[in-house]
Amino acid sequence: MKRxxxxxxxxxxSRVLAGPYCTMxxxxxxxxxxxxxxxxxGDDTRHFGPFQNDESAYxxxxxxxxKSIELNLKDEVDKEQLLQLVKETDVIVENFRxxxxxxxxxxxxxxxxxxxxxxxxxxxGFGQFGPYSQRPxxxxxxxxxxxMTSITGHPDNPPTRTxxxxxDMSAALYAAFGTMVALYHRERTGEGQFxxxxxxxxxxxxxxxxxxxxxxxxxxxxxxxxxxxxxxPFDIYxxxxxxxxxxIANDPxxxxxxxxxxxxxxxxxxxxxxDSLRTEHEKELKEIIEEWLSSxxxxxxxxxxxxxxxxxxRINSIKDVVEDEHTKIREMLVEVDHPIAxxxxxxxxPVKLSLTPPSIDKAPPLLGEHNDEIKKRLLKVGID
Amino acid sequence: MKRxxxxxxxxxxSRVLAGPYCTMxxxxxxxxxxxxxxxxxGDDTRHFGPFQNDESAYxxxxxxxxKSIELNLKDEVDKEQLLQLVKETDVIVENFRxxxxxxxxxxxxxxxxxxxxxxxxxxxGFGQFGPYSQRPxxxxxxxxxxxMTSITGHPDNPPTRTxxxxxDMSAALYAAFGTMVALYHRERTGEGQFxxxxxxxxxxxxxxxxxxxxxxxxxxxxxxxxxxxxxxPFDIYxxxxxxxxxxIANDPxxxxxxxxxxxxxxxxxxxxxxDSLRTEHEKELKEIIEEWLSSxxxxxxxxxxxxxxxxxxRINSIKDVVEDEHTKIREMLVEVDHPIAxxxxxxxxPVKLSLTPPSIDKAPPLLGEHNDEIKKRLLKVGID
Lengths: 384, 384
Description:
Chains A, B: One of its GO terms (molecular function) is CoA-transferase activity. With 384 residues, chain A is α/β, with parallel strands linked by helices.
């Protein structure tokens, strides 16, 4: 199979989540990713659960298909070897706090002297410059500072974090895109460059039109749970055994819903004849819908609504979505064969390229698994 | 200034959010993006608020720097012109429901005959294949089906949608990355290909380690608000005038916090001496922290904690983050000069490339603004 990034060598100084997810996307597409790990302990996530046969599945998921070498960034001999590696590298990815790589003598300004074609991608909480640059970054902090937390949750409850690490994941995606742009530019011009990705910037960018509501209309968007800012009924509703999403954005769909909930007279009810009137009378409408739903399970309600062409969906638990046939057919859950832990089921890669698809076939590395192979090679280069 | 994608021509059939955000990232980096719009009405978002001088800021934000041509995809003359455009195009992006482009005779299999080097990116709710492929996709549905909604929110409340359209935005980012990978591969081999991106896949991929908790430990992750699954105190806490995030992941940091909240005796309290004990006694600890916070504003508490080196942050509202000095310095809020609406403040681009940065200097197009220019050129090509 063709692997679109098989000529790309990545030197990966990153740890935990944002950086490793970015380089995982590269490894899935064939890049040769060499993980530089702290001797003896390695990436922190090697010690994060869940564990399978004492091996971290957290680490395994994010580092499949990569190689591992132990190098002490403060040791002169190790650093000499590292600088040799830099010379033959295409991409560096790191997510230390801004300034750390400079203290180690491994910042872009220094390394581009060794390798002018280098693409150097830094991911941090608040970016390489700006007033918050030196603050410690946790996903929770990035989501809160970037504005996402203030608009997530129910109006009468405290704000809430998105259930996964959106600050890390969005930064990883902008970093992966930007790094590919830099590689494309390099392919055409021979020029390398530096990329500065911040989690707070990434969260802010993901806010989409919420920003405009303030910059244009001077409205500060608030928490509205799962409701649509304009359309109704468009929300999560309680059924007999759980919750169901109903998404009605126009009058014909509303009419269909009225038939499903056995209240056809509501179609001409003056409170509900237009979308904006329905939004005005949102609470009454929710009561009516939930009254009907209280007699049906989510599955029953979903079936009736699907039959009538009413846009709806159940709310999948992680178990539901993992075991969903759709997830399997889309190869969004894949198996990685770990030499110690055995087969590990991990999330797949959504970048479904027809000619050069992602392929997830190599295990994550044991700590220092490639020490000998790489150090021997470097020794030879040194002698030549 | 150098623009890394200035040799790339994008034919953009996409509407509303996911597709347009993907091609916006390309336009910001210099690609020549031509938006194909429905004659007379154009992209639906031209009619979405907020409006500035009757022009949609929603549309303006997503379509800055693009061109617009009105073409009726069902009209034979218009389609002939479109096929001429396909011949000179590098990338097509579309986000119709799977099957629509095929019915129009504009699917990848057909168009690659005209242009074998074409990169063709389709974005949809559930992908081009799989049991849910034909279901209507709303962001709310994608978040719910992909599993994110089930883990977002407080334990005693209904699940909740992330405050922005994460299904669209994550799909846009995977699509932008995948398209760049395809362009990189094409640059080296001359081969085009097809890319199939699904919102449900993208949400599932963003779940990160939540998936492993089920596949490895058979635990179905539930809603835990903003809490950390392992560490405590790591949550959102109420102060006198709002909420504050505190993120403590180890004992030395906990000791600092005890001093800030004027309860140094808690450092040796047997209930709180280790992270796992603190997690066990999470409620008691929350009460203690909020008791102290009840006498202080968020700003006062943030200052005391920052001084003591306790990781914390306020929860920025959209107004707060828009007006934050950091946002300005990072150029995350930029002005686009609209010919009718005047200057519009819109979210910037987080892909901070040192040599070839994004530049957002061209207005969004009026509907059909480039009809004449492009049709005249096509006419000439037709004659030659």
